[in-house]
């Protein structure tokens, strides 16, 4: 089994191929909360500048420097280093669609500036934002959500860029460097480079490997997209497994909720056949819950936190 690959190159809503691409994107998102986009978002030169020059350099800075990548924004929006036995570390640039955020991030490492790095990231992010808008529009439009609701939904979003590094997996972990999880975001666009790792769990429990092809970016749904689509789009269950036991870099462009946002399922997606599944969700509180001891214990933290069914049955 493979995750469907949809060619989005050169498409806009007036193109002849838009409707069929939209149908394919919507179907893939409904099935596994995941689609592989063939796109020209990241050309070979940008790719090399980022993955082969900037990232190895960034991760070779000493720990004290790395830890200066903090964000007052919310939990887990700064540097995350080697947590709980994971051979994984990650930088995070919050509010990344604002070029000054990229420059502030770069000044941690290169106080005299690094225009090449900033230009690389700024142009990559602007391309990723277009891709994210296209996939989000296709998915919501394909489900029958009105243009005004999509525009309203966009107002609740802010974007981060995560730059991740995985060390060579320890033998005992069978190549798994990030265990099975869903993302507490709306969507995450995942860019792999040369080394495999991303795997998505299908409904039958099997794992589907997404090859690290240079002209593709994988877009996955997170828990918040499940809420706004009233459960239609499942949050993608995924993990990182590098069977070839190599060091790996990946870049993730994440659409998260603005601080203080409260989300509800979209009106168009609640009807007799699709009764309301989620109570209004305070996104900041949800993220705290997700990573709390209790949130890490339960099998479906979203359902536990704001599922209508769950609160309905709590009177039992
Ligand atoms: O590195 C990847 O391919 C995916 C990483 C991931 O799932 C995450 O950081 O949440
Ligand atoms: Fe993830």
Automatic annotation (TrEMBL):
All residue ranges annotated as the Fe2OG dioxygenase domain in the record: 157-257
Protein name: 2-oxoglutarate-dependent dioxygenase DAO
Superkingdom in the source lineage: Eukaryota
Record carries keyword Oxidoreductase: yes
UniProt similarity note: Belongs to the iron/ascorbate-dependent oxidoreductase family.
Chain's role: 2-oxoglutarate-dependent dioxygenase essential for auxin catabolism and maintenance of auxin homeostasis in reproductive organs. Catalyzes the irreversible oxidation of indole-3-acetic acid (IAA) to the biologically inactive 2-oxoindole-3-acetic acid (OxIAA).
Any Pfam family: 2OG-FeII_Oxy
Transmembrane segments: none
GO molecular function, one term: dioxygenase activity
SUPFAM superfamilies: Clavaminate synthase-like
Residues in the signal sequence: none
Entry-linked InterPro entries: IPNS-like_FE2OG_OXY (IPR044861), IPNS-like_sf (IPR027443), Iron_ascorbate_oxido_reductase (IPR050231), Oxoglu/Fe-dep_dioxygenase_dom (IPR005123)
Source species: Panicum hallii var. hallii
Entry keywords, A to Z: Dioxygenase, Iron, Metal-binding, Oxidoreductase
Keyword field contains RNA-binding: no
